[in-house]
Write a structure and sequence with these properties.
This protein has helices spanning 5-21, 23-51, 61-66, 81-87, 95-104. It is mainly alpha-helical. It is an enzyme of class 1 (oxidoreductase).
């Protein structure tokens, strides 16, 4: 079995935690954390439901008007040619510029 440095440190941390806290206390801590996560998630969803009347984009009246079949700007539908043209970006390869700058002596940290 091969173990890298990060895995070794993680395993040592778990073993140290079990040694110091004991297995039962660790289970309690994990359960308390999961309860907190569930409570936080519920409160976020509840606040979202109270504040926002329109929670889904397909229910937004402006979006419905935009995609309206009779007089909407994007009447072809969500996957039509115009929506594809307006809402999607295009990739432009700029690696030649970076290569030219490296040849001039510029150094990058990426």
């Amino acid at each position: 079995m091969k173990l890298n440095r990060r895995g070794f440190i993680k395993a040592c941390g778990f073993m140290a935690g079990y040694t110091v806290l004991g297995l039962n206390m660790t289970k309690v801590a994990v359960a308390a954390t999961m309860d907190f996560v569930g409570l936080r998630q519920k409160s976020v969803y509840d606040a979202d439901a109270k504040i926002y009347k329109i929670r889904k984009s397909q229910d937004n009246p402006m979006i419905k008007k935009l995609y309206n079949r009779e007089d909407g700007f994007l009447h072809e539908g969500p996957c039509g040619h115009m929506s594809h043209h307006l809402l999607h970006t295009h990739y432009v390869d700029r690696s030649s510029r970076v290569t030219a700058l490296k040849e001039k002596g510029y150094k990058f940290n990426f």
